[in-house]
Amino acid sequence: MKKDQHPVWNVYDFLRTIRLNVKYNQHLLDYFSKLSMSFDLSLAIIAPSSSIATFGFWGTDEGKIVWQVLIAITAIIAFIKPFLRLNDKIKYHERLALGYDILYDEIISLKNKISNSQQYTGKHILEFEEIEKKEEY
User: Domain-by-domain residue ranges, the chain?
Assistant: First the structure.
């Protein structure tokens, strides 16, 4: 049997896949969190009741144009934000990242057991199958 065809490579392939899923979902979680924060900040800063609205610059001709553009952008953001459901996406990817992180810890533990024993036994195979089943949930 070739080295790369040994069943233990399934463990390492799964480990790599789980790690990539952790990184992917953490990246999306970070992206959606930053996007939500940006929207919230723009709504708070550009709201007519904010202290920025009192700056003297907005009284000039150029300032009035810039202020109107900013108000229009904020209105668009305020309209589309509920449809984007960013909070739902944040919760979803937070849950996925956590779940994959737990799986990653379990598969690392199995990898360490295999490395320490220097063999891939039936006990290891059963443990691996149990970990694989958890990914389906």
Answer: 3-135
For residue 15, the SS3 value is: helix
Residue 57 vs residues 34, 68, 69, 78, 101: alpha-carbon distances, Å: 29, 13, 14, 24, 50
CA 113 – CA 117 distance, rounded (Å): 6
* Residues constituting the chain: 137
CA 117, distance to chain mean position in Å, is 35
Q: How does pLDDT run across 63-110, given as a tens digit for each residue?
A: 889 888 888 998 999 999 999 999 999 999 999 999 999 999 999 999
**Predicted model pTM:** 0.80
* Spatial contact of 50 and 44, defined as CB atoms under 8 Å apart: yes
